[in-house]
Queue: 2 jobs
Job 1
Amino acid sequence: MRFGIKTLDDAQVKGRTVLCRVDINQPVDREKGTLKSINRIEACVPTIKELSDRGAKVVLLAHQGSDIEYGNYYTTRPHAAVLSRLLGKEVHWIDDVCGPAARAAILKLENGGILLLDNVRFVAEEQTLFEMKLRLTHEQQAKTLLVEKLAPLADLYVCDAFAAAHRDQPSLCGFQQVLPSFMGRLFEKEFCTVSQVMEAPVRPCVFVLGGAKISDAFLMMQTVLDRGVADQILTGGLVGNIFLTALGKEIGQGSVDFIMKSNYGEYIERAKELYGRYGGKIVLPADLAWVTDGERHEAALGGVPADIAAVDVGSETAKIYREAILGAKTVFVNGPMGVFEQAPSEAGTKDVWQALADTQAHTVLGGGDSITATEKYGLTDKMGYICTGGGALIRFLTGEELPVVKALRHGATLCEN
Ligand code: ADP
Ligand code: MG
C-alpha cells in the first residue's frame, strides 16, 4: 500500500483473471494502419509482463484516440502486435469490447495468457463527451454496460494508466466499486513520484513554471505556495510576462497586448495578489528577449521597445535560474521559458533545460511542450523523471484528488487484507 492505494506487491494474481486498464494511446498513421510512436506501449510493459509471469490471466483495456470529432478513434489491433513483439509472447486481440465475443475470449485465457480488447471508447459510456455531459458518479459507473459485462468475469482490477488518471470514465473509475483494485507499476512510479513532491519534497524545492497554459499555471502556483511545497518559483514564458505586467514593469506594449488578446487579463490581478502574499518566493525574469527580422535582441526590464512582444527570457535570467536550479534538491518543471520552437527565441529554454540536466537535484518534468524541448536538446536521459501523464500531472498539482486515485483508494478497501 502506498499513498492509500494497493500495489501489485499486495495482489495474489496466480490463476486469477485481472482486468488491467492501460494508457497506450498513440499517434496513428491511418493510411498505413500503423502507430507513429510506441513509447506509451513500452512504458506499461513491466506491469503486463509481471502479471503474466506471475500466472494471471491478463485482460487489457485501453482507449485509442479522443472524441470522435478529433478524427483519431482507431482500433487497438496494431497495439496488440507491438505488445506481442515487446513481450516476446503472443498477445491475443479481439474486435469486441464487452460483447459475447470478448467475454468468450476472456473465458478461454490460460494462466499467463494476455488478451487486448478493442478500443474501449467504441462504447459510448467511455467517451469524453459522455463523461462531460453526464458526470456519472463512480457508483453509477459501476452500473454501466462495460463494468456489468466484464466485472463478473474478473477477480481483480489493476489500473496502470496514470496518464488518464484525470478522466472520470467507467474503464478507469467504475471497476473499483466492485473489484479489489491495485495500481500497476507505471502508475505507482508516476503517482508516488509526484505525491512525494507534494507531501514531502526534499528541500530546497524549486518550481520552474513557464509556457502558455495560464489557468493551470496559476492554480498550480496557488496550491504549491499555500501548502508550503515550493520554496521558490522561477517564472518564464507567458507566466513570467503576466507577473511582470502585474508589477508594472516595462516589458513592451506588444507583450501586454498579447496577454489581453489571449484573454488572460484577469490573471494580471491574480498575479498581483499572489505576489503580494508570496513575493519572496516568486522569481521574475530580470531581462527579456524579442525577435525582429529573425534576429534576437535582449534587454533588461524597461529596455524592451514599445509594440514588441517578449518571446523569451534573457541570458541574465537564464544565468540566475541556472544557479537556483543547481542549488535545489527537488525541481519540478512545467512549461518552456519562451517560444522555443523558433531558433531566435529558444536560448532561454535551452539554457534552463541544460541546468535541469546538470543539477544534482531530483527533477520532475511534465507537459507536452516541455517534453518536446527536452527531446529537442537531447536531454531525455539526463532528467530525473519525465511524467507521461501531462494532463493528470497538472491536475494533480492543482491540488485536486484525481478521479482514478479516488476510485483506487476505494478499490483498496475491497481487498482481502
Ligand atoms: P507544456 O506543454 O510543457 O505544458 P505549455 O503548453 O503551457 O507547456 O506552453 C508551451 C507553449 O508556450 C509553447 O508553444 C511556447 O511557444 C509558448 N510560449 C512560451 N513562452 C511564450 C511567450 N513569452 N509568449 C507566447 N508564447 C509563449
Ligand atoms: Mg503544451
Note: The chain has 18 helices and 17 strands.
Job 2
Amino acid sequence: MSASPATTNATRLFPMFADLRDRRVLVVGAGSVAARKIRALLDTGASIIVVALHAGDEVAALAGEGRVELVIAAFAEHRLDDAWLVVAATNDAATNARIAAAAEARRVFANVVDDSALSNVQLPAVVQRGRLQVAISSAGAAPMLARHLRARIETVLDDSLGDLLELFERHREAIRARWSDLAQRRRWFERVLAGVVPQLVRAKQHIAADVALQDALGESDGIGAAGSVLLVGAGPGDPGLLTLRALRALNEADVILHDQLVSAEVLALARRDAQFIDVGKQAGHHRVDQDGIHALMVEHARRGARVVRLKGGAPFVFGRGGEELQALRAAGIRYEVVPGITAANACAAYAGIPLTHREHAQSVRLVTAHCEQSADRLDWAGLAQDRQTLAFYMGVAGLERIRDRLIAHGRAAGTPFALVENGSRPEQRVITGTLADLPEVARTHAVRSPALLILGEVAALAAELHWFGAAPLEGRCRALPTPSLPLDRAA
Ligand code: SAH
C-alpha cells in the first residue's frame, strides 16, 4: 500500500491568494474547528454561509452579530450553487467525502479539514502584518511543520511591515511614474528599504516617513545612506529574555558595540557577518571610555551603518543610555531605543523573589551605591523605611557601607537579603541572609560581579519559591562554626 517516496505527491500545489470579497463561501459544520476556519475567513470580506445540524457557541454568536449566515440543516448539494469555495468541517467523514465529491463535480474548490486527500485547496499557516501575509504550506502533508516555521517567521518579521506596505501603496503611482524601468525601480526600493523610511515607520512617525519617501522620490540618484543607532537592552544573560525587537535588531545590524555584561549566548544570535566591537574589554591599557563609545557610534552611523549599541539589562537603568542618546542627538544621528529586562527584574524572577508582595512590600527602588560619593547622595532615611524592596546595582564592593547606613537609619538588622550573582545565567548563585551579616556573608561566599543585592522581607521567599539553578545558599555567618583565624587573633 505504501508508495515509494519518489512517487508520492511529486506535484506541487500552486500558491495563490484569493480575493473572496462578497463571494460566497460555504462552511459545513459549526463546531470549534469550523469556527477557527470562519475566523480566518471573516477578514476577507467573503459572504459566509454556514450549514450545520447544530451550531456551537462561537458560530451562533457570529450569526447573531450578522457576520455569517447560519442555516440549521443537513448538507444538501444545492448549497454549493453560488459558492466559490467550500470548507467541510463536520465531524462525519462520510459527509465530508460527499461534500468534496459534490464540490468537485461543480468545480468549486474544497478544503476538507484534516483531510488533505479529499481537499483540492489547502489552507496555509499564515504570518500576518496588516495586509502583508506570509503563507506556509506543507501541502497538507505535515501541518505541524508549517506551524513550527510560522512561529519562527513570526519572530523575525517586524510588526511595522503592514504599515510600510500601506505607505508604499499610497505612493505607488508616483513611484512607478518616477521609475518606469523595472530594474531601476528595484534598486530604488532596495535603497529605500535600507534607509530611514522603515525606521520612521517603526517609530510610528508616519508623517515623517511619508515626507522621507517623497524626498527619496525627488532625489535623482536615490537616497544617501542613512545610518542609525539602536540602543538595545540585551537583558541579564539568558538569551530567552531578549525582546523580539532586540532579536530583529541583532539580525539586521551592520555594527554591534557591546558591553562586557552582554552574554556570549546573546551575541551568538546576532548576524554573523556584523562587525562586533567589544567596548567593555580592556583595549590596550584601558577600556573604551564613554566619549570613545560616542565617537564610535557616530562614526559608524555617519558612514551609513545600522549600528546596534548593545547593553546588559536595560539601557535606561544604570546604563548611561541617556548620555549616549544626547551624544547622538547632538550629532544629528537617528536613534531608537529597545528596552531590555533589567537585572532587578531578572534576578528577582530567577531567584523566586517577587519584588512586591501584598504582605511585605508596596514599592521597589533601584539603587546604586558603588562608591562613597554616590552613596552620599542617597536618601538613606528613605531607603531604611520598611515595606519596600531595595535592589542595589554595582554594590558588591560597598556592602559594608550599605549595611551600616541602613541600620544607622533604622532598617531592622534582621531584614532578609539575597545576593544574586550571574542572575539568569547557567552559573547563577543566590546567597541569602540578614542585613546584619551582609558583608561577611558575601565575603564568605566570595560573591563576584555581576551581582545584585535584593533587600527586604521578600528576599526570604527565595528559600520557598526558587526554581532556577541551585537552591539558595543560606549564609548565617555568626551561626557558622567560626574559622580559626579570629580565635588565633583573640588568643
Ligand atoms: N543596565 C543594566 C545595569 C548595568 S549596571 C541593567 O539594567 O541590568 C551593572 C550592574 O547590574 C552589575 O554590577 C550588577 O549589579 C547588575 N547586573 C547586571 N546583570 C546582572 C546579572 N546577570 N546578575 C546579577 N546582577 C547583574
Note: Residues 93-106 form the longest helix (14 residues).
